[in-house]
Amino acid sequence: MASWLGTTDHKRVALLYMATLLGFFCIGGFAAAAIRLELFTPAADVMTPDAYNRMFTLHGTVMVWFFLVPSIPNTLGNFLLPLMIGARDLAFPRLNLFSWYLFVSAGLLLLLSLLLGGVDTGWTFYTPFSTMFSNGYVMLAALAVIVAGFSSIATGLNFIATVHMLRAPGMHWFRLPLLVWAIYGTSLVMVLATPVLSASLLLIVAERAFGLPVFDPAQGGDPLLFQHLFWFYSHPAVYIMILPAFGVISEIVTCFARRRVFGYRFMVYAILWIALVGFLVWGHHMFVSGQSLFASMAFSFLSFVIAVPSAIKVFNWTFTLYRGQITFEAPMFYALGFIGLFTIGGLTGLFLAAIPIDVHVTDTYFVVAHFHFIMVGGAVTALYGGLHFWWPKLTGRMYPESWARLAGLTMFFGFVFTFFPMFVMGFAGMPRRYQVYPPEFQAWNVMSSSGAVLLAAAYLLPIGYLTWSLFFGRRAGDDPWDATGLEWRTASPPPRENFFELPVVDEEPYLYHPEATGPHHSAREPHRNQGRNAR
Asked: What Gene3D superfamilies does its record include (predicted)?
């Protein structure tokens, strides 16, 4: 145990993050289950109003800051980034371990605020709720998010330095795998945006603890200032959650379509475009907050603009599949489910970019559904897909394929049954954050709560069979999917230094030969030569 808690091996740190995030995922999922149980009937017959407010605040805070933001970068990214660029470790191994300790400390602060009485402001900590009306434990929760932010900054700096300094010989920028590009773009957002969140939450602590008149209008403050600061970080944070998912899906689609990613350079430019323009659209969260009409029109236009690179990715995945020799292993089930769910989430995002529609559905379940289709249907589905794809590399074991396919299908349909009814309820006017609602919405809420049971089963099922595979799964080869990429050119699981001999890269990424018919049937002799070099 001591060797794990003091490790500087990026692979072990990634597994520490996985275990920690699994715990927070269970806590956030429990809160979601309590919310859906309460909404099964129109009356408040499970929790008091105060308890309900604390429960959805707990759900949002845990799932956003302590699961979705670090989910792919700190787990799969931590494990795979050095392997995919031919490095022996991250640039700063001790900083990597320190970032995990920061993250755990932040989680303990949050749990302490829960045990002391909880927070009822919502995960956004909006003023004046957080500065004037909530209990004092909101400062403890805000400090928890601040500490978690420093963990993200440390991780982002580490990833940026690693990509710049430790690439294998011959791996120039346009030979990087798309997952590496996605993690690199995400890291830039982490480093540039997270300090703004920390500053805004520190101002809440300063006003509550020291009486500084920052947001209180009676003392010359501006409550809307917090929204500007918060969303300047939090909209780019959406791309911290979803950009790594784009990279994961790109790796899976190209492998099981046996074709090079269509428009590789366009995919790279789309990642960087999203990371840049994501800083310019925060105001579309504030169409009804009192900002000027001119500002709202500008933010509306930019919100449509940022949809373009996301659409490019969907089209490129589709054309990668076109005429591909597709095989339907479990990771591909998750990838196809991601594309469907993300497309729905993206299209409904265009509704919210249009000012008249956004005004109509603001603070309704339409927004809840859109957010979850992107963040949960997108990021979590991609995380599960990536976990299944690289599980043989992480553990050296294979899992039962039939159970994995069943879980992938169940996750897709369970998610649709849970969240699609919310679009209908939201457009019809049901506000979010309310535990009591008109009876005419009960049928939709029953459907949503029933779908949540199916979705929970889909999330829990892989935990069971993946754990089983650690003890009873058959041994995986070094490259069970017959995939490209340096991570498949070393042992499964990789040795401490990743490669027995550092590889040299002399070809473009994703060069699948047309005669390759799927996993275990490749004729890619150049890759086999590269594999011997890597070993």
From this structure: Cytochrome c oxidase-like, subunit I domain
**355 contacts 416 by C-beta, under 8 angstroms:** no
> Domain 10-534 class?
mainly alpha
Mean pLDDT value of segment 133-153:
92
* Coil/strand/helix, residue 214: coil
How distant, in Å, are the alpha carbons of 120, 199, 222, 371 from that of 128?
A: 12, 17, 10, 24
Query: What was the pLDDT predicted at 356?
Result: 94
Distance in angstroms (rounded) separating the CA atoms of residues 347 and 340 = 11
Angle between helices 330-353 and 381-395 (to 10 degrees): 150
DSSP per-residue codes, 269-318: HHHHHHHHHGGG-GGGG-TTTT--HHHHHHHHHHHHHHHHHHHHHHHHHH
CA separation, residue 468 to residues 6, 131, 214, 399, 464 (Å): 27, 48, 54, 8, 6
DSSP character string of 88-139: SS-S-HHHHHHHHHHHHHHHHHHHHHHHHT---STTTT-TTIIIIIS-THHH
Other beta carbons less than 10 A from residue 282's beta carbon? 23
- Mean pLDDT over 352-377 rounds to 95
**pTM summary value:** 0.93
Dihedral-angle region of residue 482 (phi above 0 means left; psi in -120 to 50 means alpha; beta otherwise):
left
Is 479 buried (19+), middle (13-18) or exposed (0-12) by CB count in 10 A? Answer: buried
- Residue in this structure with the two tokens 């960087």, named with its chain if needed: 272
Q: Give pLDDT tens digits for 470-506.
A: 999 999 989 999 999 999 999 999 999 999 888 999 8
Is-cis flag, bond preceding 128, omega within 30? yes
Q: What are the CB-based long-range contacts (under 8 Å, 24+) for 402-405? A: 403/461, 403/465, 404/330, 404/333, 404/462, 404/465, 405/328, 405/330, 405/333
User: 117: alpha, beta or left, given left = phi > 0 and alpha = psi -120 to 50?
Assistant: left
Strand partners, 475: 397
Domains of the chain: which residue ranges? 10-534
Q: What is the rounded average pLDDT of the residues 30-38?
A: 95
186: nearest Cα among 145, 247, 144, 124 = 247
pLDDT digits (tens, 9 = 90+) for 402-415: 999 999 999 999 99
In one-letter notation, the amino acid at residue 11 is K
Q: Which tokens belong to 32?
A: 């979601």
Contact between 131 and 202 (Cβ < 8 Å)? no
Q: Distance (Å, rounded) from C-alpha 62 to C-alpha 25?
A: 8
Q: What are phi and psi of 297, to 5 degrees?
A: -65, -40
Spatial distance between the Cα atoms of 245 and 241, rounded to a whole number of angstroms = 7
70 within 8 A of 152, measured Cβ to Cβ: yes
| Residues across the chain | 535
